[in-house]
Amino acid sequence: MHPRVAVLAFVSLLPAAAPAADPVDAAAAKEITATEAKKVGMLLAGPKFLGRGTGQKGNDDAALWLAGQLREAGFDAGPAPGGGADGKLDDADFLQKFTATRGGGGGGAPTQNVVGVLRGTGRARGAVATGGEPPPPGEAAPVPPEGPEAVVLGAHFDHLGVQGKHDPKKPPKKSGVFWGADDNASGTTGTLLAARALGRLHREGVRTRRSVVVCFFSGEEVGLLGSKHYVGNPVVPLADTVAMVNLDMVGRNATNQMEVYGNTSSPELDAWHQAVLEETKFKCAYPSPELLMRSDQWSFYEAGIPVLFLHGGLHKDYHTVRDVPEALNYAKVALVARHAFEVVWLAAEDPKRPSFRKIDMKGAGGALGLAVDPCTPEEEEPLDLDAGQSAVKVTAVFAGGLGEKFFEVGDLVYLWNGFPLAEDDPVARWGAFVQAARKGDRVTIRYVRGKERKAALVQF
User: Fold this and answer.
1) How large is the average pLDDT for residues 34-59?
2) Which residues contact 71 (CB under 8 A, 6 or more apart)?
3) Domain range list for the chain
4) Taking the complete model, does pTM exceed 0.70, yes or no?
5) Could you give the C-alpha distances from 213 to 114, 219, 269, 426, in angstroms and in order?
6) Which residues have CB under 8 Å from 139's CB, separation 6+?
7) Which residue has the higher pLDDT, 455 or 168?
8) Where are the beta strands (DSSP E) in 157-261?
């Protein structure tokens, strides 16, 4: 068993008193199961919520459903503590409303985050860690302000929603709905299951030192808008927010494999993650950090808060109508939920506040300094590629990379020195090409920007 601060109950009526099951393990066993993950995931990514597009009815309906789930789990409403003006705690009290004003289907649309809070027992006293370094000789460690600290557990629940005309009589993949099962009904499901387990402990009187804030963000797909709004309007001051754990796309690929980002933003948070691995047994990859910028933990990281981003890996159905709930690995969703639950528990219980360290982004995107995603079939169609060929879309250009002078976000890359990107996994093929390039190589990379075809001659 990994080290964990836990309350043990003893059965006093037996002649030989023996410790009962660890309540943390018991809560997880009751609330975090593959069966329940499938029940929730099939609902979130099904016809009731129609892809949960920001500004669309499906998103609003999903938000109210999630709010009701947090209320039933015993959470207080973050935006309206204790309930609204009538003194009653309603589902709507959990909604943190804002207007999505950037790009995509969410431009200028009213939407909402869903925010709930489990109140901790009080501040965990001790010096605020500062980058892991002790205070200078003769100086006292900074004293934290009064008030409860908090750990944030989050996931974005929005996706692309209905695109064009929706025809419910057609099969799911031809109905005009981007279902977003992995992106991000899977992370939303995992976060909800972890929240239920935390709520069960709270109701049973097993409360953490720090509060736990659970956030379901809208507007992630149109620019991390929900998390940006929360960071600008936190229900617990950012100065008292010690860590953020985010789940995004955790339902595909092998059950025991997980990608982890942001762990180097705090040695303490990384230590808690590593401790939990002793139980969950994930085989973790720690890729270069370009994906760190691509989900809601980035808003918290930019505010100086340690983050941990759990990700199940990309796949060819990303941002397509093929991302359906039947394709999810629900055992994996449950296991990631268990991992997040355990890390949040440790972060909420440890007396020491985790320190924050900036992540070295040097090397992100390899020698070219580019982050890429698979293209959707709709994006590839104008490229007129041969059968079996695909393309990747540039999603970030990092300063200092060789690609900085050639590429922009949104470029579609389809040829590397005459070699196409394979349809089954174009991102992996792109990565293999970049890694295989050696100093002195001259490579022609062909890509499309808008309607213009271009070629970059890169000298490695």
Assistant:
1) 97
2) 77, 89, 90, 91, 94, 116
3) 23-349, 366-459
4) yes
5) 10, 19, 17, 37
6) none
7) 455
8) 161-162, 177-178, 211-217, 241-247, 257-261
pLDDT mean over 95-105: 76
Q: Which pLDDT score is estimated for 102?
A: 56
DSSP conformation class of 296: T
| Equal fold, 23-349 vs 366-459 | no
Architecture of the CATH domain 366-459: Roll (2.30)
Q: Per the CATH hierarchy, to which homologous superfamily does domain 23-349 belong? A: Zn peptidases (3.40.630.10)
Q: Is 68 exposed, middle or buried (0-12, 13-18, 19+ CB in 10 A)?
A: middle
- Residue 2, φ and ψ in degrees, nearest 5: -70, 155
Closest Cα to residue 243, out of 120, 122, 113, 150?
A: 150
Report pLDDT for 123.
59
Distance between CA atoms of 70 and 88, rounded to whole angstroms? Answer: 15
What is the C-alpha separation between 27 and 335, in angstroms, rounded? Answer: 14
pLDDT at 176: 86
Q: How far apart are the C-alpha atoms of 257 and 284, rounded to whole Å?
A: 6
Tell me the percentage of the chain whose pLDDT exceeds 90. Answer: 66
Cβ atoms 442, 458 nearer than 8 A: yes
